[in-house]
């Protein structure tokens, strides 16, 4: 599970959506964009006393990319209390990007004046409470709003007017058109007891059932979760502000305090891969700052490869391999120094290296997959 973070780089090519951590974008064909979420500008409680700084860290990561994304999606809760000064700060920070930014509001953005302040700044050209769509590189993007007119004890809601608009919006599209939906509250029932879901999402998804590639990007819960239903892949993003508890692990949701020296290690970046239209998204969480503990390293098993393929570590280090592929793999030393069990998706294996040398390994299930650890 991931706690919070700053963004993911998304690439769409041939109807296949894939993601990478900021700082690890790859050149090549396809549309790249960035998703960030839940900035909560104005929040200053112990969980993070400087949310503007962590948002700026996300922006700095984007600006540092050698190949800039085409645009940015912000999936809501730009501010904490919908105050004009908070919107001004968010706008100022986001303007540091020389990129288009597309927004949808979170419930914290519509606390005052029925959301008019949000719409004046970020909703120009949108309809209703801020819903809109656009096309880029043959992909249809749909921004939905499910944070208005929330009922006591209820979930997010889209409402009849927006659902009718959605049906008309996609009517003209060919069923082969890749669809990316972005909204604040998840469009699937993550944890209804905490309001983590959308009441009328089934009708929205029924409007999209004829499309072969549908990806749904949300925020709100401040942690990465994923689900696949047929041709629809759901992904909730991390926050740039503060962590929230895992579903059901606390009496209620809300900002979660962690030690100050660990906060930015929990502000992770996400590498997310969508290999084929009907395959699940695989997520690797990469912290904004490395943990203070030395001697620990990670290797990701994804797309039938080890990343990084070569890892250099000091004596006494522990390497952890995590399988993010949707097929099983294992980790086998060519000299029989170590061997993992079969690792299914999200399975992990760790080994401590106490002697110098070069340790070559491979996957015995898919032996063309090779890697090595250099211990010095």
Features:
globular, alpha/beta, 22 strands, 14% helix, 5-stranded mixed sheet, Immunoglobulin-like, 6-stranded mixed sheet, 6 helices, Purple Acid Phosphatase, chain A, domain 2, disordered N terminus, 376 residues, 2 domains
Quick overview of this protein structure:
The protein has 376 residues and is of the alpha/beta class. It is 14% helix and 29% strand.
Output the helix-strand order: EEEEHEHEHEEHEHEEEHEEEEEEEEEE
CATH architectural label of the largest domain: 4-Layer Sandwich
Choose one word for the global shape: globular
Weakly predicted, low-confidence segments = 1-6, 24-29, 268-286, 291-295
Structural class: alpha/beta
| Biggest beta sheet attributes | 6 strands, mixed
- For the record, the CATH class of the largest domain is Alpha Beta
Report the span from N to C terminus.
32 Å
Number of strands: 22
* Name given to the CATH homologous superfamily of the largest domain: Metallo-dependent phosphatases
Topology overview:
Layout: E1 4-5, E2 8-13, E3 16-21, E4 31-36, H1 51-63, E5 71-74, H2 84-94, E6 101-103, H3 116-122, E7 132-136, E8 139-143, H4 160-171, E9 179-182, H5 201-206, E10 214-218, E11 225-229, E12 232-236, H6 260-263, E13 267-273, E14 282-287, E15 296-302, E16 305-307, E17 310-313, E18 317-323, E19 332-333, E20 348-353, E21 357-362, E22 370-375
Parallel strand pairs: 1-13, 4-5, 5-6, 8-9, 9-10, 10-12, 15-18, 17-22
Antiparallel strand pairs: 2-3, 2-4, 7-8, 11-12, 13-14, 15-16, 18-20, 19-21, 21-22
């Amino acid at each position: 599970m991931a706690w919070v973070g700053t963004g993911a780089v998304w690439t769409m090519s041939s109807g296949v959506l894939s993601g990478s951590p900021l700082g690890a974008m790859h050149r090549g064909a396809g549309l790249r964009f960035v998703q960030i979420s839940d900035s909560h500008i104005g929040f200053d409680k112990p969980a993070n006393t400087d949310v503007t700084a962590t948002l700026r860290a996300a922006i700095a990561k984007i600006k540092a990319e050698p190949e800039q994304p085409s645009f940015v999606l912000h999936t809501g809760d730009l501010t904490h209390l919908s105050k004009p000064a908070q919107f001004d700060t968010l706008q100022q920070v986001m303007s540091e990007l020389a990129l288009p930014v597309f927004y949808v509001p979170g419930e914290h953005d519509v606390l005052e004046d029925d959301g008019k302040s949000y719409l004046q700044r970020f909703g120009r050209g949108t309809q209703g409470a801020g819903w809109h769509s656009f096309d880029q590189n043959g992909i249809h993007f749909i921004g939905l709003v499910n944070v208005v007119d929330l009922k006591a004890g209820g979930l997010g809601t889209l409402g009849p007017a927006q659902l009718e608009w959605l049906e008309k919006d996609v009517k003209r599209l060919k069923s082969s058109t890749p669809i990316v939906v972005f909204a604040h509250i998840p469009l699937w029932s993550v944890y209804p007891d905490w309001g983590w879901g959308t009441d009328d999402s089934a009708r929205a998804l029924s409007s999209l059932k004829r499309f072969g590639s549908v990806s749904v990007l949300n925020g709100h819960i401040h942690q990465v979760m994923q689900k696949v239903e047929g041709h629809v892949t759901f992904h909730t993003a991390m926050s740039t502000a503060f962590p929230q508890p895992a579903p059901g692990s606390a009496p209620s949701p809300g900002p979660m305090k962690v030690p100050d020296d660990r906060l930015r290690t929990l502000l992770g970046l996400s590498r997310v891969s969508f290999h084929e239209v009907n395959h699940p998204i695989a997520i690797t969480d990469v912290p904004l700052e490395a943990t203070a503990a030395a001697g620990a390293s990670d290797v990701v098993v994804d797309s039938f490869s080890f990343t990084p393929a070569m890892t250099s570590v000091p004596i006494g280090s522990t390497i952890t391999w995590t399988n993010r592929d949707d097929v099983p793999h294992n980790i086998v030393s060519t000299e029989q120094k170590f061997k993992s069990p079969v690792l299914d998706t999200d399975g992990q294996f760790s080994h401590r290296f106490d002697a110098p040398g070069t340790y070559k390994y491979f996957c015995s299930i898919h032996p063309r997959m090779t890697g090595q650890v250099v211990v010095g």
